[in-house]
Design a protein that fits this description.
five-stranded mixed beta sheet; 20 helices; membrane; globular; single chain; 40% helix; cell inner membrane; Nitrate/nitrite binding protein NrtA; TAT_signal
């Protein structure tokens, strides 16, 4: 699929020739998208975010002027929890948000609150989350999933508590999948609780849980504070998995189609800048460390932003699937099969009691039309030839969207009564 997203060098050269060989400056390439009938309906766009490394495209778009390039001004709003993001997005205090993929789908289906018509405008990143286990478990000889399974098997059900960030969110789905792949039932064998990302490390420190799944920098922070270690990255579970998306209300997109396009274009352009060089990634980490964004030490961000991992118990590696924001545009596309996968997990864990129309729901939420308009505005990105992609997960299962209900019901460990 990478070839489908490769930069169209011929197109750029032809355009350059048309301009008498002049360099194609951003302003020349995109000014038409911010004027006339294509002018954004709104000048200022309020976008919520949680202080996590993967809010990077929003920070860079705002601070590097990619928003102005497309005729809008981003107004970032730092939020304390995913529940706060949900509430402000639904009641209109936010126009859009950096949001968990599964949270957005949960809103649409009425399993994260009452049903709300939502829209996924683009994928903001892939990979880059992790599961942290406590130093307490390490002292008991637990450094991997088989050892964890053995310990839990020797204990009363619910004796050990694990945390994720939202009931229908990505971190819940990664945690459940990882535990189940090791023979641990995430509802019958252990207890799970919801904790906002910035509070994960503190809660582990005081003993409220022995494991958590969250985005960075909180896994790296747990290692630095010597209270835990990385047992698995989420790219171990699903290489190149979708993570955060740019979410909004369907009504807002219908009322502001040009603003929606401009917003997506600005964030795609920012994502491209981030991945243009290691230097840009380092600068992004420095920017994110500031008080207005993550308010943490730059050292907690840089390593994993660059794909340089240390699990805290002696293993170091350059990850083959680090956090990605662009990858020739491929990361940003709102694949229909990605959305369908979350529906299969909702079904697996009893959050959906009856078989949904997987593809229809995903096509309703994932606005590939807006993405394509935005990609055209940015330039140099070729849309994929299919709305579905194929992936192999940690347990060898292949997900390609072809039989979602069969996939959902194929797992040995499911929630009883689902």
């Amino acid at each position: 699929m990478g070839d489908a997203f490769s930069l169209s060098r011929r197109r750029l050269l032809q355009a350059g020739a048309a301009l008498g060989g002049a360099m194609l400056l951003p302003g020349l390439m995109h000014s038409a998208w911010a004027a006339g009938s294509d002018k954004p309906e709104l000048e200022a766009v309020r976008v919520g975010f949680i202080p996590l490394t993967d809010c990077a495209p929003l920070a860079i778009a705002s601070l590097k002027g990619f928003d102005k390039k497309y005729g809008i001004t981003l107004v970032p709003s730092k939020e304390a929890s995913w529940a706060a993001v949900r509430d402000k997005l639904v009641n209109g205090e936010l126009d859009a948000a950096h949001i968990l993929y599964g949270l957005l789908y949960g809103l649409e289906l009425g399993i994260a609150s009452k049903p709300q018509a939502m829209a996924n405008l683009m994928t903001l990143n892939r990979n880059g989350q992790a599961i942290t286990l406590s130093a307490e478990l390490q002292e008991k000889g637990v450094t991997d999933l088989p050892a964890l399974k053995k310990l839990i098997g020797q204990s009363a059900p619910g004796a050990y508590t694990f945390a994720h960030t939202f009931p229908t969110g990505t971190h819940a789905m990664w945690l459940y999948y990882w535990l189940a792949s090791g023979g641990i039932h995430p509802f019958d064998d252990v207890r799970t609780v919801v904790v906002p990302p910035p509070q994960m490390v503190m809660n582990m420190r005081i003993g409220n849980m022995v494991g958590f799944c969250v985005g960075e920098p909180w896994n790296a922070r747990a290692i630095n504070d010597r209270i835990g270690f990385t047992a698995a990255t989420t790219q171990d579970i699903w290489p190149e998995h979708p993570e955060k998306v740019l979410g909004t209300r369907r009504e807002w997109v219908e009322q502001n189609p040009n603003t929606s396009r401009a917003l997506v274009a600005a964030l795609i352009d920012a994502a491209r800048w981030i991945e243009a060089s290691a230097e840009n990634k380092r600068e992004t980490a420095q920017i994110l460390s500031r008080r207005g964004w993550l308010n943490t030490k730059e050292q907690y961000l840089t390593g994993r932003m660059l794909g340089e991992y240390d699990n805290g118990i002696g293993r170091r590696w350059q990850d083959a699937h680090p956090m990605r924001f662009y990858a020739e545009g491929e990361v940003t596309f709102p694949w229909i099969s990605d959305g369908m996968w979350f529906l299969t997990q909702f079904r697996r864990w009893g959050l959906l009691k009856t078989e949904p129309d997987y593809r229809a729901i995903a096509q309703r939420i994932n606005r590939t039309d807006i993405w394509k308009d935005a990609a055209q505005a940015v330039g140099g990105i070729t849309p994929p030839s299919s709305l579905l992609r194929s992936s192999t997960l940690m347990d060898g299962t292949v997900w390609n969207g072809s039989d979602p209900e069969g996939y959902a019901r194929s797992f040995a460990i499911q929630r009883r009564g689902a």
